[in-house]
């Protein structure tokens, strides 16, 4: 079953204000309330979705979690009890239906719709405070080097939990891209009333490298050569993640030519093989020349070079 898109259910954008969300909820709840749609299963299901969406998007912390982890990730962390915890039906629906409590709403003399039965509640939501509750997740940024991203390995990190510093070992997969999230199960906040702990989510950022830039799984490195080397050809040493490599530069190479070093890039994340390294050749033009050099260049100019 596909995860629910709460913004789509209420018909608001992801940047919608609290007031826009409230207005959208009020309009839809009035339209699909079962007392206005007796014996219409589709309207009742729609009404359930609307209330579930509003229970999340009207709560700042739940909305933040929903926006951070997405619909699917959110539903892996929050049960139905979690979603409706703290959602005051009495206050919200009383305002919506002009003073009627959650237990009864009447339209045109028809008998009211029982919201308690609608939610399948037994004993009331007041009992939920004693139910096992899963601990909150913790989000943390981890900064690694390009070499760590390429080759992977294990890294020891510290993060704050309950006002104290905790240490944990993290396995960095080979080829991990920047922005990827790593999940450490059970390393989040402790649960309540015997509930399980939350998880620790590490968002990976890759530190800028002094030599290489990364484009997907390819690496780009710039290498300068002299004008004469570009004209006559040369052999140059180029840095790679595996050490220095000798590369032949053919005669007549133009500035900004890219030379491909196959398989010397970043390993494919969760796959076989590697990207490539590209050497961007920059033909260096001297800012100052000696009189002798100037004379020689002038002679070359006469030859159209």
Give the tags.
single chain, alpha+beta, Helix Hairpins, HSP40/DNAj peptide-binding domain, 3 domains, four-stranded mixed β-sheet, three-stranded mixed β-sheet, 10 helices
In which order are the strands of the major sheet placed? 6-7-11-10
CATH superfamily of the largest domain: DnaJ domain
Q: Number of domains in the coordinates?
A: 3
Number of strands: 11
Helix content: 25-40%
Q: What form results from the Cα inertia axes? A: elongated
Supply Rg.
31 Å
The biggest beta sheet is recorded as: 4 strands, mixed
The ordered H/E elements are HHHHHHHEHEEEEEEHEEEEH
CATH topology-level name of the largest domain? Helix Hairpins
Under CATH at level 1, the class of the largest domain stands as Mainly Alpha
> Span between N and C termini?
69 Å
The CATH level-2 architecture of the largest domain is identified as Orthogonal Bundle
Poorly predicted residue ranges? 99-129
Tally of separate helices: 10
Instruction: Work out the strand percent.
Output: 15-25%
């Amino acid at each position: 079953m596909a995860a629910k898109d709460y913004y789509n259910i209420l018909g608001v954008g992801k940047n919608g204000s609290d007031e826009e969300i409230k207005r959208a909820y009020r309009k839809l709840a009035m339209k699909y309330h079962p007392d206005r749609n007796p014996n219409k299963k589709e309207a009742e299901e729609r009404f359930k979705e609307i209330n579930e969406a509003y229970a999340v998007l009207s709560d700042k912390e739940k909305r933040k979690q929903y926006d951070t982890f997405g619909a699917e990730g959110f539903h892996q962390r929050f049960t139905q009890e979690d979603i409706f915890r703290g959602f005051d039906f009495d206050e919200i629906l009383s305002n919506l239906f002009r003073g009627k409590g959650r237990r009864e709403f009447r339209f045109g003399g028809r008998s009211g719709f029982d919201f308690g039965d609608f939610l399948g509640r037994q004993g009331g939501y007041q009992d939920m405070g004693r139910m096992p509750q899963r601990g909150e997740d913790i989000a943390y940024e981890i900064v690694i080097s390009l070499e760590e991203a390429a080759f992977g390995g294990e890294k020891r990190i510290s993060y704050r939990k309950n006002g104290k510093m905790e240490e944990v070992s993290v396995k960095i997969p080979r080829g991990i891209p920047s922005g990827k999230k790593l999940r450490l199960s059970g390393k989040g906040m402790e649960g309540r009333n015997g509930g399980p702990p939350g998880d620790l989510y590490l968002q990976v950022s890759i530190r800028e490298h002094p030599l290489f830039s990364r484009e997907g799984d390819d690496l780009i490195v710039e290498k300068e050569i002299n004008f004469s080397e570009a004209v006559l050809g040369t052999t140059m040493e180029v840095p790679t993640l595996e050490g220095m490599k000798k590369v032949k530069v053919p005669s007549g190479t133009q500035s900004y030519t890219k030379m491909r070093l196959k398989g010397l890039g970043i390993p494919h994340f969760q796959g076989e093989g590697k990207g490539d390294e590209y050497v961007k050749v920059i033909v260096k033009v001297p800012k100052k020349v000696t009189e002798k050099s100037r004379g020689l260049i002038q002679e070359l100019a006469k030859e159209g070079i």
